[in-house]
Amino acid sequence: MTSFAPSRGFVQPYEQVFAKLRRGEAQAADGTRLHYEVVGDGPETLLLANGLGGRLYSWLGLIDDLSKRYRCISWDYRGLFESATPANPGALGVPSHAADAAAILDAEGIASAHAVGWSMGVQVSLELAARRPERVRSLVLINGTYGQVFSTAWQPLLRLPIPHTLWHRGMETFIEHPPAMAVLRAVARTPAEAAFAVRKRVMPWRTSLRTLGLRQYMRDVTLTNTANYLRLFQELDAHSAYHLLPTLQQPTTIIAGRYDPLTPSYQSREMAARIPGAELHVLHGSHFVLMERPERVLGLLRDHLEKIGGDHA
């Protein structure tokens, strides 16, 4: 099995977190093998639903503090990294990932958890909360949307009449033409590697979680099954939980980035207006507030958990 653990250069500032990591495997209802990771062993569980292509390092700005109070679980989505690709190519949709989350909770003997989703993880968390409400104690939704991502991606100020089918055709072109996919992988890594090199040269004394995280992200997504990665983007567009938002009963906190071009903050405002009692916080940041504003996100998350009686520290 290929390991996709972050490189030594990334882990070094956060060795204390990875030293406590426990790896596990679960089996989905359709037999797909799922890889997950656990940090901490508190009485309450945080189910960390990653962004598409993200892994545990995306949460490093928060997890050292949270793992002292909670059991934090993160997993690789089916088809990516150390989780297997399902036998049925049509089983990569958001409902399958939500069912996988429940299977991982079952494997850990956990009845319910606080679902904390970032980016793609917002859609997965919403699906889990709507379809299996008994498994979700509360929701924290970060830099995400309710679905249909191609309708608003790269449209931070207003929605443009761009047919979402164009995005699908572009993704299919890469999937169907391996040489084009190889070029995409090479091009995707260049900006992140350049930013890391410049940062290291200009400010060698300072660690930037965002720069390190983006570099590791681009390395990972170009090493995993890139065709599955693009198919998952298509599934995010095919999915929508918009009609289910008013039915959610879990306490909900929504965190948005004011300058987020991928899941614009106006979508977070829509979700907050439709989910009963939801709180909205718009931070100065982009799609990566987890890495840009970790202290602020951590504070909001802890406030959320304390309000609903989830902090047993």
Descriptors:
313 residues; alpha/beta; Rossmann fold; 8-stranded mixed beta sheet; 8 strands; 42% helix; 16% strand; globular
Topology, please?
Layout: H1 8-11, H2 15-18, E1 22-27, E2 33-39, E3 44-49, H3 60-66, E4 70-75, H4 94-107, E5 113-118, H5 120-131, E6 136-142, H6 164-176, H7 178-202, H8 209-221, H9 226-238, E7 252-257, H10 265-274, E8 279-283, H11 289-292, H12 294-307
Parallel strand pairs: 3-4, 3-5, 5-6, 6-7, 7-8
Antiparallel strand pairs: 1-2, 2-4
Helix pairs in contact: 3-12, 4-5, 6-7, 6-9, 7-8
In percent, how helical is the residue content? 40-55%
Number of helices: 12
- What portion of the residues fall into strands of 2 or more residues? 15-25%
Rounded mean pLDDT is: 86
Shape: globular
Rg calc = 18 Å
CATH topology of the domain at 14-162 and 239-307: Rossmann fold
**Can you count the beta strands?**
8
Output the CATH class name of the domain at 14-162 and 239-307: Alpha Beta
In quaternary terms, these chains amount to single chain
The secondary-structure class comes to alpha/beta
Order of helix and strand elements from N to C terminus: HHEEEHEHEHEHHHHEHEHH
CATH superfamily of the domain at 14-162 and 239-307: Alpha/Beta hydrolase fold, catalytic domain
Sheet of most strands:
8 strands, mixed
Strand order of the largest sheet: 1-2-4-3-5-6-7-8
